[in-house]
Design a protein that fits this description.
Strand order of the largest sheet: 1-3-5-7-9-11
Strand content: over 45%
Oligomer: single chain
Structural class: mainly beta
Largest sheet: 6 strands, parallel
Distance between the termini: 13 Å
Radius of gyration: 14 Å
Number of helices: 1
Shape: flat
Length: 147
């Protein structure tokens, strides 16, 4: 029951963050935000190019979230609950969208995107899950859900 609530919360936060990312950008466009609760969490963001956006939310202990963007109009959202989770998004190109939502403990997720207008989402619940997405080219869509 707790897992279902965690996944629903993560999915809601991911959806809300994606909606916030769709809002009109202000001058300069590049936006990064990190919100963390708990102990020992780490976040790292690197951005190059106009109008890239990253939102990271972590709740729990010992979580790590990393995001790198090079290009324009790329969007990434990472939401993690639980402990010891790892998430990494790496975007190169234009108009790519990446989302990772993880609940539980010890999950690992990574999304790498090259090209344009690719979309990828990884949603993991439970513990010890691992998922990876690599996209190249244009217009690819991948959704991975694991429990």
């Amino acid at each position: 029951m707790q897992l279902a609530a965690t996944l629903k919360t993560a999915a809601l936060a991911l959806a809300l963050s994606a909606g916030a990312l769709a809002a009109p950008a202000h001058a300069g466009c590049t936006v990064a935000s990190v919100t963390q609760w708990g102990a020992g969490n780490a976040a790292g963001i690197g951005q190059s190019g106009p109008c890239n956006r990253v939102t990271m939310i972590q709740d729990g202990d010992g979580n790590t979230a990393l995001s790198s963007q090079d290009g324009r109009r790329n969007r990434a959202v990472v939401v993690q609950g639980g402990n010891g989770n790892y998430a990494d998004t790496d975007q190169r190109g234009r108009g790519n969208i990446a989302g990772i939502a993880q609940g539980g403990n010890g999950n690992d997720a990574s999304i790498s995107q090259r090209g344009s207008r690719n979309a990828a989402a990884i949603i993991q619940g439970g513990s010890g899950g691992s998922a990876s997405v690599a996209q190249g080219g244009r217009g690819n869509v991948v959704v991975i859900v694991q429990n």
